[in-house]
Amino acid sequence: MSNVKTGLIALVAISMLAGSALAQQKLYRWVDKDGKVHISDQLPPEAVSQARTEFNSKGSSTATVARALTAEERSRNDAELAAAAQVAAAAEEQRRLEAGMLVNYETEDRLLRAYNERINLSKQTAEATEISIRSQKANLASLLNDAAEAELSKRAVGAERATIIRQMHAEITHQQALQIKQQASRDSIEQEFEKVLARYRELRGTTPPLTSTAATPIAVPAPDSK
Description:
The chain is of the alpha+beta class. Among the domains are: 25-71; 99-204. It contains four helices and four strands, in the order αββββααα. The chain has helices at residues 2-24, 71-104, 108-152, 159-204; strands spanning 27-31, 37-40, 52-55, 61-65. Strands 2-1-3-4 form a four-stranded antiparallel beta sheet, with no helix packed on it. A hairpin with a 5-residue loop joins strand 1 (27-31) and strand 2 (37-40). Helix 3 packs antiparallel against helix 4. The longest helix has 46 residues, at 159-204. The protein is elongated, with a radius of gyration of 40 Å. The model is unreliable at 10-14, 16-23 and 213-223 (pLDDT under 50).
């Protein structure tokens, strides 16, 4: 009798294990590259990268797996994620700068004074460059005049003087190029100021005064084209 009971227990256990295994069996449904639908309890290697739906033995969906991305798609996805991260970082940096602006410049006048200092410094630098160019042009004109008189008198222009003339001409050209960069820098400061002032007023909830006290850069003489 004991053997019969033991056999029954073993049979029940095997049935339970079989039922459990059946319940845990997974079915796969996928569409191959030719558009044919497959349903199987085995997933062949060529179907691993395909989009598929997974079911249990009762036919209930348990998971949906997207197809694997191609190398090009992964690269594009990585680029998009990197771009999104840069945008988020820029937005956070802008938020930090704006918060600092509100703390550092309690009033609009303080903000205006800060930008006036930058504009005036840029103006002074430009004026110094202009003075230097004018001085070098005067010296170059004198050297060229001496060289011209020497040639009219049929006297050779010395090699040392010729070298100095070339060097002075090159330096003037360099200074004129620097003037262009300085002008671009001043324009950039003024444009930045207009944007920052508008944003400052927006954040403070203020409106422009009837008579604007905004910084007005003093005009710098245009480079002498002679």
